[in-house]
């Protein structure tokens, strides 16, 4: 079956939920005017409406929501009902257990009638998650059936660090998340992220970070609507790029190819082992900067067809397609009709 999927890439402003909602809605209206076919699925990034780089549990506390009850849920419900689609978006969850309030980095999936049908909690935590008090999911990765147009599609959700080795200490070749997706024959793999740009350095000084802040402040770009009628950068992530040493050489509209290729590497079992069904992967990242963090954008959709992996004189040949990508520093919507 065919699905029209939209990945919404935001430069979320930390703590400014209303502005982030307004930007996301305007871009969706631009991508899906009444004259165009509606999406079947809309995906937004990790902590899409709140921003990510909170400094403490107290800092994030005003933005916490219970699953199915809060501003993020209401926004996702509105999108689903307006376009008659499913919506996935990341949000900071609070869960009351006995006398304890537990914080999770979660993603909610809302159906076309506005009903919360699945709530996933991040399993592999990044250092920033721990700073604001996030706990690991007690349930781990999950596979579940999602109804699309009368058919059920086996689906899994991972959030950002889930794609990496656990704590960066597990063996690289264990590929925990993509191994789970492969073993459970997931056809649709959804990954909302707040993934760092490959040009970002953890030891940046404030002065170095400010040089990149200036690029974002001084470069005015229209939202990037990359759809079936405007195919750009479809395979750009596959082209090797030189690492940016100076902020003046950084281009918001270019993809972060190193990050896009790393995502492929971490999806290894989807192409190193043959299978008789297609697997569609949607990585929906955010862009922009928060303090000294710089995100990688480059939201990308991939299809893995299940054919054998081969070694050729030119290198490794895998049976897949990059359906399209957005720029590393842009805001916008990537729209593709994919077949599952």
Automatic annotation (TrEMBL):
It holds the Pfam family CN_hydrolase. One of its GO terms (molecular function) is protein-N-terminal asparagine amidohydrolase activity. InterPro entries: C-N_Hydrolase, C-N_Hydrolase_sf, Nta1. Residues 3-340 form the CN hydrolase domain. Transmembrane segments: none annotated. PROSITE patterns: CN_HYDROLASE. One of its GO terms (biological process) is protein catabolic process. PANTHER family: PROTEIN N-TERMINAL AMIDASE. This is Protein N-terminal amidase. It comes from Pichia kudriavzevii.
């Amino acid at each position: 079956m065919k699905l029209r999927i939209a990945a919404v890439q935001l430069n979320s402003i930390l703590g400014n939920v209303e502005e982030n909602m307004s930007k996301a809605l305007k871009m969706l209206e631009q991508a899906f005017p009444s004259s165009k076919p509606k999406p079947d699925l809309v995906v937004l990034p990790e902590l899409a409406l709140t921003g990510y780089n909170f400094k403490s549990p107290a800092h994030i506390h005003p933005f916490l929501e219970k699953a199915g009850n809060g501003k993020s849920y209401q926004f996702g419900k509105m999108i689903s009902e307006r376009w008659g689609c499913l919506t996935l978006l990341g949000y900071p969850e609070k869960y009351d257990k006995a006398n304890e309030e537990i914080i999770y980095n979660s993603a909610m999936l809302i159906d076309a009638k506005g009903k919360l049908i699945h709530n996933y909690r991040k399993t592999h935590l990044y250092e920033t998650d721990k700073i604001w008090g996030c706990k690991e999911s007690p349930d781990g990765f999950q596979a579940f059936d999602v109804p699309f147009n009368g058919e059920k599609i086996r689906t899994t959700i991972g959030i950002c660090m889930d794609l990496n080795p656990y704590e960066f200490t597990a063996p690289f070749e264990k590929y925990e998340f993509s191994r789970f997706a492969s073993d459970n024959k997931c056809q649709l793999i959804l990954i909302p992220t707040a993934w760092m740009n490959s040009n970002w350095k953890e030891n940046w000084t404030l002065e170095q970070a400010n040089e990149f802040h200036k690029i974002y402040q001084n470069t005015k770009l229209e939202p990037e609507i990359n759809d079936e009628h405007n195919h750009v950068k479809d395979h750009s992530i596959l082209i090797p790029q030189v690492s940016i040493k100076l902020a003046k050489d950084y281009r918001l509209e270019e993809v972060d190819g190193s990050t896009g290729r790393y995502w492929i590497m971490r999806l290894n079992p989807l192409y190193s082992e043959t299978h008789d069904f297609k697997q569609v992967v949607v990585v929906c990242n955010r862009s922009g900067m928060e303090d000294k963090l710089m995100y990688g954008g480059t939201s990308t959709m991939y299809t893995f067809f299940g054919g054998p992996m081969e070694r050729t004189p030119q290198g490794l040949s895998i049976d897949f397609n990059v359906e399209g990508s957005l720029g590393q520093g842009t805001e916008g919507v990537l729209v593709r009709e994919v077949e599952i």
